[in-house]
Amino acid sequence: MNPRRPVAGDAVIAVAxxxxxxxxxxxxxxxxxxxxxxxxxxxxxxxxxxxxYRQEATAQAIRWYHKAAPAIVRDVLDQLDLAGLVRDIVEExxxxxxxxxxxxxxxxxxxRDLRIRTMTADETVSRWVGRVxxxxxGASAVGAPVGG
Length: 148
What we know:
- The protein contains 5 helices and no strands.
- It is an all-alpha fold.
- The chain has 3 domains: about 10-40; about 45-80; about 80-130.
- The radius of gyration is 41 Å and the shape is elongated.
- The mean pLDDT is about 80.
């Protein structure tokens, strides 16, 4: 096959392109007719009746779906081996490792939090001791009333 020469598929593409262009021109000519407010009264009434039928058919289809869906889901679930599925998942996952990782991350978080709180408490104690033992404070600062 020589890709530089037209092939049968090119003819199909050309026919489709011409059909689309022609359809667009025809649709453009009929567009004003699609606006229902310009239709004669009997035709608008007919469209209204069709609309009501379509709404009722949609509502009926939804009611059928709500009745049928639970039965279908139950049937599918009855055909599944859920116990076997859970067993396979548990066997394929390393539960002890997952538990170790989960508890390890909790322990790490707790240890980090404890270290931060200890550092904060140490800084607070250091500041308090520094104020109490500072050369200008002397023994009178320990027993002196607050505020002066």
